[in-house]
Amino acid sequence: MATTVIPFGPQHPVLPEPVHLTLKVEDEIVKEAIPALGYVHRGLEKLAEIRDYHQMIQVCERVCGICSMIHAVCYSQAIEELMEVEVPKRAEMLRVIWSELHRTHSHLLWLGLFADAFGFESLFMQFWKVRERIMDINEATTGSRVIVSVNVIGGVRADLSPEQIRWILGEIDIVEKEVRALQDTIMNDYTVKARTVGVGVLSKENAYLLGAAGPTLRGSGVAQDMRMLGYGGYSELDFEPVVETSGDCWARSTVRFRETLQSIDLVRQAIAKLPEGELAAKVKGNPPEGEVYMRVEQPRGECVYYIKGNGTKHLDRLRIRTPTFANIPPLLAMLPGCELADVPVIVLAIDPCISCTER
Amino acid sequence: MKGKVINVTTDTVVGEVMKMKNDGHRLVTFSTYQVDEDGLGILYHFDKNLETTHLRLTVKRDAPIPSVSGVYFAALLVENEIRDQWDVKFDGLVLDFNRTLYLDPEVTQVPLVSNVKIEPKK
Asked: What is the ipTM for the molecules in this complex?
């Protein structure tokens, strides 16, 4: 049978950001997929050579808009470990609250995009409508909807007043109710299941060996989530990773849906355990020196920062491994054997963030 | 740095990575850093049950490095990225983008190494 080569991307209706796949297709079945990256690479790691280690927080926030808070947390924790800075408990818990709000809005954004990818536009609008409440909380508590920029080395620079906390609890109650109202549709609707069940299957063994991260890994039955490390305030919260076992697009979607509810619960827990105290520790001593390897859980999965400091205000090396980068090899394993019409759904099911990947 | 660090050489790196795989470790990623003017350090990060192990390889930047993409397929993107950004070669890379994973063919400056020029791709 003749092989046809079909370019997928870099501009495609399901891709908010550019990535290219060369698909080798026989009849309507994909036989091979080869990726091409680099359309929007920004070289942010290189900026560590000319921005000082405090300024790099703002650079790291811009690795990704959708999970900017968690990038900043990862970077800050790495520098704090190198400089042996003890972060106040209140700051740690505030970081958890804003991180979980970020995860909630990221998953709601993705659930909407995913619904749009298989043509369910009203579901797309419903998820994005719910998401607006989270964006309003971000704006009201930090001054910005997306890049909240509250982290400093040693803690945070914004606080939550008792009035804001009461308002947030009321808002997330509404968000939970509205998300639960969509549960039956995203998990059980006939048309959704027809496009997602048994599509893009990634076995547990392959997910692990190919280095999958986040919901892509947990959707294949591997119970691994970096929040299990107990970094920051997570050690004081009741947390179990969300796992599904079927390894298909439905499983990855269901993991994200359940994690949205879990994040709302974590926000409530963190607020309940929010101690009084300082917002940030004073940072004293010499600039960071030595090596540190830090991992946190982003909405898309495990995010890794490797930092090498030389005792000056400029870092020797900042290396960032984002979860989408880790999920591309598993994607290349999912695509062969699928129908061409399923490619957009499978690609979107890893929640590709090319901004992160091309940091 | 948290986690166990094992030093490896270009002769032993593939064998050590194979051992990690057989022992049930997941390859997380590599990190690369400059050691001196022409020396390069590579850390291979592995995870097993949330415990981290690092293999540390130190090489001259102009010497080829054995690819581990035959052991862990996931290594292919990281090795191509390192090739783009540090102008090092990997022997046995299963899918070699020939220094164009991130870089445009006409690029002549190595992004993460100062004062090193490379030939543009034809």
From this structure: 0.92
